Amino acid sequence: MPWVPYTLNDGNVMPSIAYGTWRTGKDPEAIDFARQAISAGIYHIDTAQNYKNEAEAGTAIRECGLPREKIFVTTKWSRLNGLDIATSFENSLKDLNVSYIDLYLIHGAELCDDIPACWKEMEKIKDSGLTKSIGVSNFEVADLEQLFSVARYIPTVNQILFHPYVYEESVPIFNLCKQRGIVVQAYSPLIPITKQPGGPLDRPIGAIVERLGASTDQVLLAWAKSKDTAPVTNSKKKERLEGYVRAGDLALTPEDINAIDTGPEKVLSQVVKKVKQDELSVVCSVETAAANLAQSGGMIGGLIYEDELETTTDTLIMLANNPSLISLKALKPFKTAVHDYWRRHVDALVLLAEMAIREQVPKLGALQRWVRECDAVLSPKMSKQEENRVWQVLDAILRTTQPEMIAQASASDEGALEAGSRLRWYTPFTVDPGLSSRKVHIDSDSISSSAAKVLVPLQTTPGPERRPPNKHPAVIYFSPDNTFPLLPSSERTRQPTRHELPGVPGAFIINDALEVPECEALVKAAEAVGLIPDEPIGGSATQLSSVLAHNLIWLADTTFIRTLYQRLVHLLPQTVHGGAVKGINSRFRLYRYRPGALYRPHIDGAWPSSALNSTTNPPTYVYDSDPTVYSRLTFLIYLNDDFDGGCTTFFLPSVTQGILEARPVKPRTGTVCVFPHGAAKGSLLHEGSGVVSGAKYVIRTEVLQRDTRPRVSTSPAIVLSSRSKAFGTWKIPLGDTTINQVDQAISVGFSHIGAFDPPLHLLSKSKFVSTHAQLGFVDTAQSYRNEAEAGKAILESGLARDDIFITTKFSGVDGLDIETSIKNSLKNLGVKHIDLYLIHHPRLAVPDIPTAWRQMEGLKDAGLVKSIGISNFEIEHIETLLSSAKVTPAVNQIILHPYVYKRQAPLLEYLNKKGIVFEAYSPLIPVTQYPGGPVDKPVKAAGKRLGATDDQVLLAWAKVKGAVVLTSSSKKERLEGYLQAGDLVLTDDEVKAIDEAGAQGTKILTARTVVRRTAAVLFAGAVGLGICSYLGINVL
């Protein structure tokens, strides 16, 4: 046989090439494709729960004509519908219709709240005999190390992304698997030709193809085989599948393999070369324009003198040649005014090209920021060329981050692409059912008049206190029950109907969600109460450039929400992102768009479930009433259609790179538009296109889901583990110095510290470059007395509040209790919630630890803090706390550096067992307070090998220990160096040498030590002389 089977570490035998059912559909055609693969000679079928075609795979296996034992079946636990491992396995057996599974995998480490606990469940299934072998997929080094700590069975397989473009960064996990006898399965091995044709691999592969008389995919499979991996691939064409089988006979030479290995290194060099060419063209175009204008003399356009243009041109040329100057704070006003579009777009395309090669996916916050930044430069005054460059970057963003969104336009589609444009426009989508012969009897005037009298302001936030600050306040109204009565179904003119949006995945409209008079009553009542303008005076460039609608924020009454939901529940999905659909959010935002008002292209974020707290007097607004409920679907209600323009337009990457599809939805009175939001995958780029004439009224709210899974995101320890560096404000003085230093920390990258995600796994430099895909972390405390300065710096950083993770601590300042202190911290920081609140020391937990912790839990229940934790707690303190705790501390912030590691090791082990993240403060003490101590030698030796500074080595050491690192500096270059420490890889011997040196203690006399010892000797001498004098003993 060309593909030699693998004998797994448990003795079972696995065919070394597999047919994967991913993206092969779930209809009869999928059965044919799998059966075709078997007939071509591939006897290993790889599927998974979230491929949603296990049943089709099982049918193909039964119908292939071979005995069951001849077909090797792999499937995976994908946490589909939030089900646990045991239940999911039973469902897979049922769907596949088999009595056993050959190989069962955990589809990804992120699916496990607790990796060791998950693996124990997998071992139980193996013990039952229902699966012969167990393994994992997409596990990194740190994930496997956790698993090994409890494993009775070592995983037989780790199925990972593996092809030449990711080979270098896959080496650490690849080597670990080989050391532990774990077979590496390579999925997507053909990406260099399916996703990256025309790349630098084409030449070496082409030469091999010509020499061997093989196809490019056969050469790539042979390369994967040469790396001792078992490829998982697929094709809908039988001849290709047969070619895959024959690829096992190909023999690549060492020179062939080396040429493929080194090919990806040329990708970035080619991109960089293109960047330099673009930069040169920018400079040349500016110089040419200046030369042409200089010949005309006098003023240009009646506005600009020639010498002014010359100065501006010189400045632009200098900035193009010295791009690092752009980051200087002094150039912020110039950057805002000029917006060097060309340079920004080229930089973005370089990073996006690299991310595409690495198949990296950003978080939602990063995706939203990128879109905002691109959209900020769109202007009606831009040239077509400039506008196209912006759309080109937007297309690259969507194509890189959401490749599954790439449209598959058919020949019958009506999209029109104008010459020179990057947008293919489609006819606005609408479904008009025609006039109804049935009339409804609703007096919209009477309802709106009554409603206007009972709509009561619930909460008012002054404009300057809004985020971002606004010229106008935000007023939230609420209405008593039955303020806006809705007709029962039996009296309606038409029942609602659902219609999918062509070419827009996950989006649909529901016609006749509301009756026309019901919509009219809402509009009239809003106008009677008064809609408030929305004019930001700070925030993102997009928010400032959008001409926003007037709005009214309304907390709808329970009866209205319940009736509307009951009308539509049968048309809504039952689950979204693993959460069961629960209802409609009561927080309604009613907008009025007039000509000139529009909301630029953006991606919606998720909203919590808002509610009215009627137990207080007066009732109060609760922003997040239930942490287990969240949104993943936008819910737009169109209240009228007597206007021109104003479509909701969705933008999706087309099959042609660089071209976006623009698919508008035409508003129709009473229609609802529903589409995904709140996650990087599946969220839709869209805009509220400009109204040409008339006024458009629309309500935006959300469909809510209750997460039935044990949620990783609600465990602060897991959330916080994705941020392994924080900027601390301890020992930073008060006033503007504090503000400048926090602002500096954010600007150099502490607002982008996810490059260290996850903390125990060292990432490639390319991932580090893309740090703008992550979030920030600023640490302060009441006793530092600079919370106000930290808050001001965060506000002025230009980042959204959700993009900065704020920690502060209860320090018992001025003798205040926990509840009063948190209110003061919120006020000082200028925020509505704190991400992490800590008890600064066990002695501050008064009157006792259990009582203080109950108060902390009360703050979390009230929504004032997202997570709670402790600082400087020892094991006995934590045991006391846990004896009565409902919530386990998310974090324990402790001192950690090599000189205290031996003493802290038992505590670290205890925290790991309890699932409590530990933050390491003062990690640089060996170089800042004890220079010349025993740790210096191993630290400097590691630094010499790595070309790193002492502090970078110490940060890398702390990271190896699994710590979330907390540090600070008043120097920008040092902060930048701290971030670069994320790329350092210390050897085991280097870590051991630092540990052993730290265990020796400082062994040096500092000035403080000398003073203390001298004082002690003098004091002892004085005491001795006094005693002798008292006893009458003369010692002089």
Automatic annotation (TrEMBL):
Native source organism of the sequence: Psilocybe cyanescens
TM annotation in the entry: 1015-1033
Cofactor(s) it depends on: L-ascorbate
SMART domains registered for this protein in UniProt: P4Hc
Family: Belongs to the aldo/keto reductase family.
GO molecular function: dioxygenase activity; iron ion binding; L-ascorbic acid binding; oxidoreductase activity, acting on NAD(P)H as acceptor; oxidoreductase activity, acting on paired donors, with incorporation or reduction of molecular oxygen; oxidoreductase activity, acting on the CH-OH group of donors, NAD or NADP as acceptor
SUPFAM superfamilies: NAD(P)-linked oxidoreductase
Keywords for the protein's UniProt record, in alphabetical order: Dioxygenase, Iron, Membrane, Metal-binding, NADP, Oxidoreductase, Transmembrane, Transmembrane helix
Identification of the protein by name: Fe2OG dioxygenase domain-containing protein
Domain Fe2OG dioxygenase per the UniProt entry, residue ranges: 583-722
Pfam families: 2OG-FeII_Oxy_3, Aldo_ket_red
InterPro entries: AKR, AKR3C2/3, Aldo/ket_reductase_CS, NAD(P)_OxRdtase_dom_sf, NADP_OxRdtase_dom, Oxoglu/Fe-dep_dioxygenase_dom, Pro_4_hyd_alph, Pro_4_hyd_alph_FE2OG_OXY
